[in-house]
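Before the break, one more example. Copy the sequence into your notebook; we will annotate it together after we see the structure.
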Amino acid sequence: MRALLLVAISSLGLIACSEQKPADPAPTPAAEVAAPEAALAPEVVNIPPAEVATRLQGKWQSTEDAASIITITADTWTNTYTGDDSVNDVAKWRAFAGSEKPPGSEDLTFTPTSTYIEVKSGENTFFYELGTIEADAFDFFYVSRGNRLAYKRIT
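Here is what the structure looks like once it is written out:
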């Protein structure tokens, strides 16, 4: 029994003399945690409606479907599809500010700071939110579905 007591006391001595791991630091209160730097809001690309016609005039090819072509003049928007002569839709179009609520758009939501395109083809009217217009590319978003349409200039 003495031997057992001696082993137990020796073990306690070794434990007491051994190097101890430092205790985990106390968690930092949420108020002291540095907040990440606020992300800067992306710059709003807002092309005034009066400038859109001049910047869009030309012939444009879809970046998703090379056969889809749009030819835009000051007041006409012509859709054609290479290889399908039945697609030749000539429509009237205009740009307008998102603060405007055109007839036929009652069930749609427009952002007041955005610029939109209205395309009237026969009895149908389509609304697009303008994205960017560059010298050789532009994109816009079909308001009813939200899908992005992108084109590159070919003339």
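The longest helix spans residues 2-17. Strands lie at 58-62, 68-72, 76-81, 84-97, 115-121, 124-133, 137-142, 148-153. Try to locate both features in your own notes.
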